[in-house]
Amino acid sequence: MKFTHLRPDNRTSAARLLRLPNHSLSWRIPWGLLALALTIGVGSGLGAVAFRWLIDTFTLLFSGHEDYAAAGHAAHPYVPQLGMWFLLLVPPLGGLLYGPLIEKFANEARGHGVPEVMASVTHDGGRIAPRVVLVKSLASALCIGSGGSVGKEGPIVQIGSALGSVFGRLARMDGSRLRLLVACGAAGGIAATFNAPLAGVFFAMELILGEFTVRTFGLLVLSSATASVLSRVLVGGELFLTLPPFDVDHPAEYLLFAGVGVAAGAVGAGFARLLYLVEDTVARIWRGPEWLRPAAGGLLLGALLLALPQLYGVGYPALRNAIEGQYVLWFLLALLVGKMLATSLTLGIGGSGGVFAPSLFLGAVFGTACGMLMHSVAPALAGPAGAYGVVGMGAVFAGATRAPITATIVIVELTGEYALLLPLMLAVVLATGVSRLLSAETIYTMKLRRREAEPDLSPLPAARG
């Protein structure tokens, strides 16, 4: 990350920092760029709320429940005679809808979204086609609603970034400012999704822009805060996880958290490898039309959901249950392996959704499992297993993305567990280091590098470390 500092120079002023290009007379004053950031924040917030409504609607339609991940093996209320076996039909049905939609209108809507935004920023000057907003919204909502085991944050990042690109191009912004507005959309998307405005800001700086400046920070904060406030007004402002207060009672327990961080870094890097291994395997086996692949692969996903219905959709209920200690150790390990396979399969067959939430899910079940093991070995030293689940969420995400600042801030904002800040920071830093030792790429940059190596596909920029 590049840091740009300001010298105390009388010639430096806010007006100079925010000065806009001379060729756009209506946007010369700083207030023009501020107004754009504010507008993008509003658009990202509204887009996130609308997207969540789409997911809820399709989930209810396909499964008959508000969130089937919390319903066990319940039957669909509209077709009760099928029992739990309707799960075999739901993912293929969803694939028949979103597969042709992506193939015909926007191929860039396939996948988890963030690499495509990174590509537009570093390679295409921040230009994203307006059709991505609609196609990505529908395709991802159909995919998640029909059981796709992916997250909603990646699509919302792509939707918000596309809005930023559209507004910036309408205002005739130059390349650097257009990229900044794309990042404003990404920040607003993350903020509105998780009710985490600071996490949105640092996500955009660490992963989308790869730099930090005073102007960048100020505009991202404006967009992120606006989207977050709008989301809180429309859907509520409660914490993502409401947990009992955790604390570190013994200084030696930091060694246990460090061990979780090291292991979680390997889990995050392994998740990235498995994701693209499954994608390669599916691509090598499949010989039919691309639009049909999500439906055919959906049969495998449905079989996996039959075994572990907790993996249906984003899977937040199972994540909460894991941290609250409602699962035994063997089932946590089954969820760990199952989530890796389900997410990899969903994206490998051509689904649309993010990997942010799956990384948090993996960290929650893995960290809680580690906490249970440590508590059985050293009960006088280890604290509640849920504390290790909270720390594991940030550590696995950091291992997969190598964005340690975002990983730390997002967990604190999601849970409000400020007492775990120090062990969280320790685990996140160690996980990032272990991931770097195991892999030269992250779960995002790996996709960019792979696309570079395939001359038959559209070129994407070199991956940033």
What is the multimeric organization of the chains shown? single chain
Listing every helix as H and every strand as E from the N terminus to the C terminus, the arrangement reads: EHHHHHHHHEHHHHHHHHHH
Shape summary: globular
Roughly what percent helix? 55-70%
The whole-number mean of residue pLDDT values reads 85
The radius of gyration is 22 Å
Provide the fold topology.
Layout: E1 2-3, H1 14-17, H2 30-63, H3 90-105, H4 114-123, H5 131-145, H6 153-170, H7 175-194, H8 197-209, E2 211-212, H9 214-235, H10 253-285, H11 293-307, H12 316-323, H13 329-348, H14 356-377, H15 385-401, H16 404-415, H17 421-438, H18 445-452
Parallel strand pairs: 1-2
Tell me about this structure.
The N and C termini lie close together (10 Å). Helix 10 crosses helix 17 and helix 11 runs antiparallel to helix 13. The chain has 18 helices and two strands. It is mostly helical. The chain has a two-stranded parallel ribbon with strand order 1-2. The N terminus and C terminus are likely disordered.
